[in-house]
Every structure is written in structure tokens, then in C-alpha cells.
Amino acid sequence: MERKIGFGQALKLFWKNYINFKGRARRSEYWYMALWHLIFIVPGLILLLIGLMTMITGISTYNSTTAMVGLILLFISWIYIAIYNLATLIPNWAMLIRRFHDTGRTMVLPLIFLTILIKTCILMSIINYQDPEYQYLSSTIIVIVSYVMYIVVGVYNIVICCLDSERRTNKYGPSHKYGNHLKPVSHGNADIYN
Question: What Pfam families would the database entry show (predicted)?
């Protein structure tokens, strides 16, 4: 058995494998990085909440200075969150794909999910521009179907990311969790694992 991936090592592996869409990623690597994301995003969310509350307080008390401070805090938090999300977009998808590989699945579903996400974001922007009040039934149906698709595919992704590693060497490489002791030995057309 190979050594376990720790909290700090998961962060190093995340940035080291920035654009690595090949190979496998252990479950601990994936979930420790999810915890790191939470740690990095919480300050932005706290700043967002403080800015929102400050702006609402300033508006309700007719204090333009307080409202402006709240607006500046909102702007700073949005910039921080946007930069962080853009910086981690590619390595997050790379790690998700490697996690799928670790469970013996292909990268097709994460790429389909990314395609759906991009297309529906564009579609939602068009709908919000043309029908901001959602007066047309077609706009409402498209929005509901989009969110249902996000939920279904998101839950499926979470379930796959919770599954244990495939014990044997698969087409994406040897198991990092169970070590290299299970190597395929070819006997004719069938592979037998030792």
C-alpha cells in the first residue's frame, strides 16, 4: 500500500497537476482539495455578506457613505471570488476527470457536464436579457430543466467522487491507493491480476 495523501499534500498535488487530465486521483486528494476550496472561498463569502449588510444598512438609513462602503466591499468580494474561481477552473476539471479515472470511468460525463454548463449559461443570459420577468412559459421551462440537469449530474458526480478507488490497474494506470502490487499478467486474450 502506498502512503496516504494528507491535507497539505492534496494542495500541492492540485497545483502540480494543474492541466493533468491523465492518470488517477485518490478520493482523499479530491475531498481534501474540496476542503481547501472551502477555506479559500469563506473569506470572500464573509466579505460579501458584510458588504451586503453594510449596503442595506446604508440604504435603509439614507447614509450614502455607508452604502458606498458596502458596495465597495461587495465589489472586492466578487473580484476575489471570480479570480479564485477562474484560477481553479481548469485544475478542478482535471482533478474531477482523474477522480473518474480512479473509479474506472471515462472523462465523457465530466466533459458533457462542462458542455451543458457552458451552453446553459449562455442560454440563461439570453433568456435573462430577452425575458427578465420570465413571462413566457418557454423561458420558465428552460430554466427549470437546466437546474434539474445541474442537480442530477451534480449528484451523480458527488456519488462517483465518493466511491472507492478501483483496486486493480485500469487503463488509466495503477491504483495509487492499493499500490502497484496488482499488475496485469497477459494470458492469451484475458488479463489476470496477480
Answer: DUF805 (PF05656)
Rounded alpha-carbon distances, angstroms, from residue 68 to 53, 77, 82? 12, 14, 21
Looking at the predicted structure, is the pLDDT value of residue 183 above 70?
A: no
126 alpha carbon, distance to own chain's centre? 24
Give per-residue burial for 127-136: e unless 16+ CB within 10 Å, then b: beeeeeeeee
Buried b or exposed e, range 93-112, using 16+ CB within 10 angstroms: bbbbbbbbbbbebebebbee
- Determine the residue type at 116: I
What stretch of H or E contains 132? none
CA 95, CA 150: separation in Å to the nearest integer? Answer: 19
pTM of the model: 0.79
Q: Write out the H or E segment, with its range, that includes residue 191.
A: strand 190-193
CA–CA distance, 34 with 165 (Å, rounded to integer): 18
- pLDDT tens digit sequence for 102-124: 999 998 888 888 888 888 888 88
Residue carrying C-alpha cell 446604508: 58
The answer to whether 53 touches 60, Cβ cutoff 8 Å, is no
Please give the single-letter amino acid code of residue 114.
Answer: L
Write out pLDDT tens, residues 8-52.
999 999 999 999 999 899 999 999 999 999 999 999 999 999 999
